[in-house]
Amino acid sequence: MSLIQLIIISLVQGVTEWLPISSSGHVLLAAGYFGLEGRDELLINAMAHLGTLFAVLAYFWRDILRAFWGGLELIGIGREAGNALSGEARLALFILAATPIAVIAGIFHEAFLPAAWQGWMRSVWTVAGATILFGLALWWADMRGGLTRREEDMTMTHALLIGATQAIAALIPGTSRSGITMTAARALGYERTEAARFSMLIGAPLLAAAGGYALVQLATAAPAPGAVATLSDGLIVAILSFLSGFASIWALMALLKRMSFLPFVIYRLVLGLVLILASPAALSIFR
Question: How far apart are CA 213 and CA 38, in angstroms?
Fold first, then answer.
């Protein structure tokens, strides 16, 4: 693969993974444009996911460390019987509670959803429709006003509800996992930076699972004589995805301290319309 192709794919994954604009939709379109399939797609997908995973771990290392110590407390290490859970343990519990439903949805998608349905869900029309629909949902949730809840206000019900929305993103490309979880958090009353932070923290286990699954698929996939991607290509993608992912997280958190999600909503609406107008069916109408 050419360096420019690797750079584009890495930037697409790194920049869009944590922004509420659907990384899966963008990566799907980029992979299709460059003709990646089979082992090539699995390799690039796995390394891009691992790169963006390390980006969120690096940016939120304090929260990750808090959740780690909280996890130890949950299993009885460092906590006296009868004492209430600490803030660290509550954070770990909320992250754990937000994960299972999305994992089940991902397994269902890969193992039980008919190939024809998977193909339909990966179509440009589905990506475009989800991009627009869930962009409007984000705008609605963000514009409600008076949303000032923080981590200390979170309940188990809220964590479960926010986490459950990830199942929709696991099934429908174009939804945006980060977008729909931020939408749910905003609708439940959490301020913008808190919604974004919790969205990224609960996304880390899923991203690790997705990257690991892609690696397993890659290890068990049959050799492809026409493959063009190499391991060195994958390492380049991982490094560039890490750098661009870290930059996008930093930019998002900085922006949300000063403005609303409206720019991302507008982007989603424009992208959805462009995808529809550029589709083969639409182009055939204007011929």
Answer: 14
In the predicted model, is pLDDT for residue 39 greater than 60?
A: no
- Which token pair is 69? 């110590």
Lowest mean pLDDT among 2-6, 9-13, 63-67, 270-274: 2-6
What confidence tier does 50 reach under pLDDT thresholds 50, 70, 90?
confident
Reading the block at residue 22, the tokens are 């659907």
Instruction: Give the dihedral of Cα atoms 257, 262, 266, 272; nearest 10 deg.
Output: 90
- pLDDT category at 207 given cuts 50, 70, 90 is confident
What is the token pair recorded at 54?
Answer: 């390390």
| Separation of alpha carbons 145 and 151, rounded Å | 18
Number of domains in the chain: 1
Backbone angles phi, psi at 218, to 5 degrees: -65, -40
How far does Cα 30 stand from its chain's mean position? 16
Burial class (CB in 10 A: 0-12, 13-18, 19+), 64: middle
Q: Which of 177, 233, 168, 242 is nearest to 206 (CA)?
A: 177
What is the pLDDT confidence band of residue 114, given thresholds at 50, 70 and 90? confident
Residue of 20, 18, 36 lying closest to 233 (CA atoms)? 36
Radius of gyration of the chain from Cα atoms?
Answer: 19
Cβ–Cβ < 8 Å for 81, 270: no
Domain of 27 in residue numbering reads as 3-286
| Mean pLDDT score, 87-113 | 89
